[in-house]
Amino acid sequence: MTDTAHKDTWNRPITVDHINKDRSNNDLSNLQTLCLECHGRKDLIPRLRQRKTDTHMAAMVDMRRAGSTYQQIADATGLSIGGVWKALNGESK
User: Fold this and answer.
1) Residue 83: its pLDDT value, please?
2) Taking the domains of the chain in order of start, what are their residue ranges?
3) 13 three-class SS
4) 5 with 24: CB under 8 angstroms?
């Protein structure tokens, strides 16, 4: 996509991406231009697809075995009660 086409589509200049995600490495070999959609797909979307419950699963299982309610687990982890319930009941895959 050209910069002109990007401006027509997104109303802003094309983005510059750090290939290795190190923003301090501005060597030309580490830079590439990407449209907003491609930049988001490369950097942002993988983080959004990662389930927030994954990092808390062991603690949630331990808390549930110790008798904690779904609401108590949600409060302790900062997750939604629905997310906790789905994760602990195998429905968040």
Assistant:
1) 87
2) 3-49, 54-88
3) coil
4) no
Burial class from Cβ neighbours inside 10 Å (0-12, 13-18, 19+) for residue 14 reads buried
Q: Which amino acid is at 25?
A: N
Three-class DSSP category at 32 = strand
If you search the block for the tokens 């319930």, which residue do you land on? Answer: 85
> Would you say 15 and 8 are in contact if contact means Cβ atoms under 8 Å apart?
no
The residues that bridge with 33 in the sheet, in sequence order, are: 16
In the structure, what pLDDT confidence band is assigned to residue 48 with cuts at 50, 70 and 90? low
Residue 85 phi/psi, 5-degree rounding, is -60, -45
pLDDT over threshold 60, residue 69: yes
Q: How far apart are CA 30 and CA 75, in angstroms?
A: 42
pLDDT band at 45; cut points 50, 70, 90: low
What single letter denotes the amino acid at residue 5? Answer: A
In Å, what is the CA distance from 25 to each residue of 10, 21, 40, 47, 55? 26, 8, 20, 22, 29
